[in-house]
Amino acid sequence: MNVTPYVTGSASATRPWEPYYNDPVYDMRDMDEDGAPDNPGSVLYQVPVRTGQKDNYNLGVGFSMTWSRPLDQKLQDQCKEAAAANIALMQQQTANKRLDFEIARLKNCGELMKQGIQFHPKSPYFSVCADVVVNNVTYIKPHVHSIPTPVSRNAEDLGPALTTGKE
Questions:
Q1: CA-CA distance, 157 to 154, in Å (whole number)?
Q2: Does the chain have fewer CB atoms within 10 Å around its N or its C terminus?
Q3: d(CA 112, CA 134)
Q4: Are strands 20-26 and 56-66 parallel, antiparallel or unpaired?
């Protein structure tokens, strides 16, 4: 169904404006009664005649409505099915892109957390990795221990031998 509102208008006027015109009254007198006017074409007087001239204005307001029904229901059903399939495809593509984004976010946040790198808690970006948890981390940061060198190189100076308790 299609509904179309409309507004139309028109104006018409005659220029120059002349509300009256003078209609001549001719002398039709026949004084000698010969059947012919004595003064043909002579104007006795003029009568003012109203012209009826007026301006016209028109305004039309309304709406037009049409209704159509397809004759081939099969084509309409196919069109609806194609639209639904296209919408489902777009939704799946959006879901795939969202999943790719979330996996990349999880991977990057996890790797940074294992390295001890994160946003400051007051940073507006802290919430980007706030829901990422790193479990079973066996990674140890590279570090160096200093071991003092013994004063003596004799084994006896190191103390008695250790026992395991199985002897």
A1: 6
A2: C
A3: 10
A4: unpaired
Q: Six-digit token pair at 22?
A: 């003078």
**Residue 105: how many other CB atoms lie within 10 Å:** 14
Residue 143 lies in a domain: no
d(CA 131, CA 108) in angstroms, rounded, equals 13
Structure tokens at 32: 């000698």
The model scores a pTM over 0.70: no
Q: Which residue range is the domain that position 57 belongs to? A: 2-11+37-128
- State the CB neighbour count (10 A cutoff) for residue 109: 20
Q: How many domains does the chain have?
A: 1
Please report whether residue 52 resides in a domain: yes
Give tens-digit pLDDT for 108-138: 999 999 888 999 999 999 999 999 998 877 6
- CA angle centred on 105, ends 100 and 110, rounded to 5°: 130
